[in-house]
Amino acid sequence: MGAELELLFTDLLSNGQGVARAGEMAVFCFGPLPHERARVRISEVKRRYAVGEMIERLSDSSDRAEPFCRVFGECGGCQVQHLAYPAQLAWKQGIVRNALARIGGLNAVVGETIGMSNPRAYRNKMALVVDHAAAQARLGFYRQRSHDVVPIDTCPVVTPQLDATLGRIEALSASDPVKHMLADARHIVARSARTTGQVVVSVTTERQSRGAAQAARLLVEEAPWIVGVTNSFDLSSANAIAGRNHRVLCGTPEIEEEIGGVRYRVSAGSFFQINAEMVGRIFEFLSQRLGEPGSLVDLYCGIGTFALFFAKRGWNVVGVEENARAVAEAVANARLNGLESRAAFVAARVETALGTQPLRSALRRAPTVFLDPPRKGCDDVTLAAIARARVPRLWYLSCDAATLARDLKFLAAKGYRLEIVQPFDMFPQTGHVETLVLLEYSDLVSR
Q1: What's the first-to-final CA gap in the chain, in angstroms?
Q2: Class of domain 125-258
Q3: How far is CA 127 from CA 187, 242, 253, in A?
Q4: Burial 409-419 (b: 16+ CB within 10 A, else e)
Q5: Considering only CA atoms, which of 425, 430, 428, 437 is closest in space to residue 93?
Q6: How confident is the model over 165-193, as pLDDT tens digits?
Q7: 445 confidence band (pLDDT: 50, 70, 90)
């Protein structure tokens, strides 16, 4: 350790680390991009790789861009602001292609990544950490690979309404009500709506807050775009961002968003895609390829984002989601859109629900299943149940290329073939990529 090396970097990991080789040893380092040379000091050596710190960049890639955030490289929220946006899109296409080949053993044709018109100011949710290390509590995001907090007073990748909310909380932080609220808070979670401009804020505390109501009223008075403030408490773990219980402190707990003609009422802590523009792009992509409406099972349906999109287009949908709070919002959103007759929701773990007779029957009847699992992907029980039912068509939306590749390998072995692999840039400036896949059963026997 401590050795200084001059290296040529050839690859970029999803966490933003450049990759070079020193003999047989891979070297990972934040800062350099592919095709750049840099002088690096080795700070950590493992059996198969080493980690370095960049001392000096010796050449610049033609794909290098000037980061637009002053804390880029410290804050862990963005990994690739230094990579030009067209190059980000091509890089993410490669991430998907390489994962499918390396993990799934699949030689797939991967579409060009569908990107944003403006890859900034897109995040409709922010989860701020309240840092109590200083004399006065400060707001920030976690530092890269750390639980240290980087203080911020503005963020260029959140929506303008959220950035204004951050600024207003900072401006009021010296007032007694907000100072007392922050003294008890672990996190401040806020969500905005693109179409209405509304914002809801949730204050996360270990126990129910006694003094946050006054601060909530002050926030709503001083920031008219904030329509409500809630208190999230009773944490399931020390690192939990939201609690198991919620109490409305002021106003309403939900914003209203509209995407593709579907209205959604969403709370600050709900699982709802963080990029409304890209959800609309996925809706458009699906609309052109769905075919005639029929029965559809939506697994991991959350608050019904896609279930209601399908129902709006004439499909009869059964959605399954283990979070009972999300299911309650899905039912309310179905009612809001007048889709109760076309969309029904089940509150249960997906693998458990698929073991019940009603869901087994629904799978056998459905010509299409839609899957939108969490980052860890689907478990074998779920995939096996789908394969046993020989569902003719699967749409799989994934936020993790590695677990997607693993699951597609399982399904390919059960007789499914890949028809479409389409990445979407749901998370610009980061190493994350959303991928929509269409699979069809290769032997469509009558069932």
Answers
A1: 63
A2: mainly beta
A3: 7, 9, 16
A4: ebbbeeebebe
A5: 425
A6: 999 999 999 999 999 999 999 999 999 99
A7: very low
State how far the Cα of 360 lies from the Cα of 367, in Å rounded to an integer.
Answer: 13
pTM of the model: 0.94
Q: Which fold has domain 4-57?
A: OB fold (Dihydrolipoamide Acetyltransferase, E2P) (2.40.50)
Rounded Cα distance, 279 and 300, in Å: 16
Contacts of 154 (CB under 8 A, 6+ apart): 163, 166, 167
Which of 305, 368, 432 lies closest to 15, judged by CA?
432
In which residue ranges of the chain is CATH 3.40.50.150 found?
90-117+273-441
The residue ranges of DSSP E strands in 119-278, in sequence order, are 125-131, 138-142, 149-151, 185-192, 199-205, 226-233, 245-251, 254-259, 262-267
Residue 399: active-site member: yes
For 288, which DSSP code?
Answer: T
Pinpoint the residues of the chain covered by CATH 2.40.50.140. 4-57
SS3 330: helix
CATH code, 90-117+273-441: 3.40.50.150
Longest pairwise C-alpha distance within the chain: 70
Annotated catalytic residue, options 69, 78, 378, 399: 399
* Tokens of residue 211, six digits: 């003094």
Residue indicated by tokens 């390489």: 98
Q: How far apart are CA 390 and CA 61, in angstroms?
A: 48
Lowest mean pLDDT among 202-211, 292-301, 411-420: 202-211
